[in-house]
Design brief:
The chain has 135 residues and is of the alpha+beta class. It is 28% helix and 47% strand. It is built from three helices and seven strands, in the order H-E-E-E-E-E-E-E-H-H. A five-stranded mixed beta barrel has the order 1-2-4-5-6. A hairpin with a 4-residue loop joins strand 4 and strand 5. Helix 2 packs antiparallel against helix 3. The chain is globular. The relative contact order is 0.18.
């Protein structure tokens, strides 16, 4: 019997607007919502939350870790199935960390000018954290 059939793991899908970024069996998912960080294990109560621009961590069934930077979106949990849906989601190897650092500095210089500057800051920080956590 496969792990998902035996109910030993979560089935997780990390989906961006243009592709499935990662799909598989996992032990745990950690994501940042507008209400704070959420950890999801098997048997978690149904949940629908809004994600912030942040890092999502998936502890896979084979003891690996998948880290991705997401540009907001939604987290859905029901019946040991977790969907992370975002307009854009990047794995560490897809992130140009130097570009993210430049974006971070530019956004810091614009803080207080508008809400977009703060969003740019959060996105750049999330991308840098995703690369650092995967290292």
């Amino acid at each position: 019997m496969a792990p998902s059939e035996s109910g030993q793991h979560l089935h997780v899908e990390l989906v961006a607007a243009d592709r499935t970024v990662w799909s598989g069996e996992a032990e745990m998912v950690i994501a940042r919502t507008t209400e704070g960080d959420v950890g999801v294990l098997r048997g978690h109560a149904p949940l629908l939350s809004v994600l912030t621009d942040a890092v999502v961590e998936i502890s896979t069934a084979d003891a690996g870790v998948v880290v991705a930077a997401v540009d907001g979106g939604f987290l859905s949990v029901a019946n040991d199935r977790v969907s992370v849906l975002s307009q854009r989601a990047l794995l560490p190897e897809e992130i140009d960390v130097d570009e993210a650092r430049v974006e971070l500095e530019e956004a810091r210089g614009l803080i207080g000018a508008n809400d977009e500057a703060e969003r740019r800051l959060r996105r750049a920080e999330a991308r840098i954290r995703a690369v650092e956590r995967a290292s």
